[in-house]
Amino acid sequence: MSSKGVADSGNVIGANLLGKDDSLLLQAVGRSEFVINGLRNRDLQSLLFERSTDDPIEKKRRRGQLTGKLRMLRARGLIHKLPHTHRYQLSDKDRQLIAAINAAREADVEKLTKAA
Questions:
Q1: 47 CB-near residues (< 8 Å, 6+ apart)
Q2: What's this model's pTM, rounded to 2 decimal places?
Q3: For every one of its 116 residues, what pLDDT tens digit does the chain have, with 9 covering 90 and above?
């Protein structure tokens, strides 16, 4: 999952699932509000960027950043595009995988060692 992948349209960036940026992306994608209708690039922008902007150049840059991240998730099979929409959705299995990755990232090694 963390290696560089290839999508239909060429190369896709790799993922660092335990890194800050990609873990924030996984937390946003795994939110329960996207279970029924799926998620859009615009939905993720409001979650991942602290402030909204009116600057058209900044809006285009943000769209491009998230498009690349969505391509990465799609190339790895974590999300799939809903037909005839601009929305993406997770399967139940992928939702469990993202929850497990988030739990592993949040785990405290000392507490786990004491519990064992």
A1: 28, 31
A2: 0.74
A3: 444 445 455 566 666 666 667 778 888 888 889 988 999 999 999 899 988 889 999 999 999 999 999 998 898 888 999 999 999 999 888 888 888 888 888 777 787 777 76
**What's the residue count for the chain?**
116
Q: Is-contact 27 101, C-beta < 8 A?
A: no
What string of DSSP letters covers 63-112? HHHHHHHHHHHHHTTS-EEPTTSS-EE--HHHHHHHHHHHHHHH--HHHH
- Given CA atoms 39, 30, 73, 89 in this order, what sign does their dihedral have? negative
Residue in the structure block whose two tokens are 């990465």:
72
